[in-house]
Design a protein that fits this description.
It contains 19 helices and two strands. It is mainly alpha-helical. The radius of gyration is 22 Å and the shape is globular.
Length: 455
Amino acid sequence: MNQRPWQRRRVRPGLLLVLGLVGLIFLGAALLAHPSASSDGVGLAPLDAAFTATSAACVTGLIVRDTGRDFTLFGQVVLLVMIQLGGLGIMVATGFVSLLFGRGLGVGEAGLLRDLFEDRILTEARSLIRFIALMTLTAEVLGAVALWFGLADVEPDAGRRLWSAVFHSVSAFCNAGFSLYSDSLIGVAGQGRVVGPIAVLLIVGGLGFTVVANSLAWLKGRALRPQRHLPRPRLYVQARVILIGTAILLLGGTAVLIVLEWNGALAGHSFGERISLAFFQAATCRTAGFNTMDLTTLSPAALLLMIVLMSIGAAPGSTAGGLKISTVAILGANLRAIATGVPAPRLHDRELPSRTVRRAFMVLTSWLVVSLIAVEILLMSEKADPMALTFEAISALGTVGLSLDVTPSLSPLGRGLVILLMFLGRLGPLAVAYGLVPPTRERGVRFPTGTVQVG
């Protein structure tokens, strides 16, 4: 059968992801620049529209305009749709729509899903997409219901309360950090029925779909095994690494924040409020972007801790950004193997292939290079505190969305750089490289061994 020229061209799935995200940003920017999207009836300036659209599509949360005050309902709906599509991923959403219309998944789409969700839990792309859609819908609906009741004292009007519950539920699960309130969640920090559901949503959203799937299968197997004499269920290495790493970062970050700010930013609050504020901030600075505290009141030591947490991020295949917990775990296992003289790094009694270790080092190297260049450019172009600019760059690259109130005052060059950082942070260095750099074949020729002194 004769194929048309465009059908014979093979487009790498990574490039489709890049182009899909770019298309979503351009479409969102055009809609946000329309006068009907802004409350003043004038429309956003092109740079502001591009910044806001990138922040929404890349589920970051950095803003140059007040979401609840400066946008109409139409503008807020545009933002919410972009957050949802950005959280799910362009190709995952496209694959799900294809399934709805009965076309099925193409080879390229299935290949991309295998690259993004490299796990044995769900082998079929069709099952994976269905699970992602069901999980997302379930989490966001339950979150919206919980917030509907929690916002009763904050939003007396039923219509506004419903919209606020839906908006914050989607924003929290997608780790976007957009809020309809000018002070984010500072005004409702004492409302446990509001910040509690949001904290649960952003933590679950940051675990990753495959980890949640494996955890649910493990729990189901543990419940049914005594009755049906089934084989012992187990958590895969990926799930164990993410769950343990998440617990360490949440509890460790909370404890360190309490120690650093007990007599500082947390002073004046009750014991329970101090624990709650520290826990929420430790959770949200790992990529969610909400804040229940004025971050400008934190000490430099606390801000440095938050920069570390923002850099690590959450799980791969999730709505979060950052280096990812698994990357840090792989790097740690490799260092432990070097220190103990073990031939190959191991995690939970499983040996890691050299290809995985090289990928982890590639991600770390890319992150450090991009971060250093971005901070240097911001220090040269902006007149702001160096710590605040460093915080801004890491927040953008980690798609976190927290800021020390410098985002609206950035110069055009600074805003353009932050747009680029958010874009790179959402895709990740591996996706960018896979989409833009042609793949190379493994050569059978081996070169002589050379010795280079280390240290």
